[in-house]
Amino acid sequence: MAGEALLSRVAIPAANVHRVPVVGRTPEAAAAEYERELRGFAGGGAPFDLVLLGLGTDGHTASLFPGSASLRENERWVVSTEAPPASPVKERVTITFAAIAASERGLFLVSGASKREIVARCLEGDRADPAARVSAGVVEWLLDRDAASALSGDQKSS
Fold it and tell me: What pTM was computed for the model?
């Protein structure tokens, strides 16, 4: 989706765009291959200049779901994981907190009133939701009016 909606509109060298190689692979094999690709490209540096993140109504980001073993991964940058039962896509490949933390910038794009309470918890420092545990060189949140509606005035301007 990012390639179609965003990356096709900016001048980024194709060699700098890294898609998860899922076709014809198990999630475990795709995760291992993607990690090798990212580490090779990064050459010991940050895996990404920018990690674009969303926020689920359950507090997940990337495919880092509440209660998932992937939340405890501290070394690997990419793992296979499983989404909750209600999700239409169960088997996933996700970057980990370790990859996000090693990146230069994390940017959350969040919209909708259904996420206002989670946004408020995350920005108030409640680390119960996976999204609240995200760290990177700089982490920024871009919210629409509905997603920001539970924030205090001070939080809305920061």
Answer: 0.87
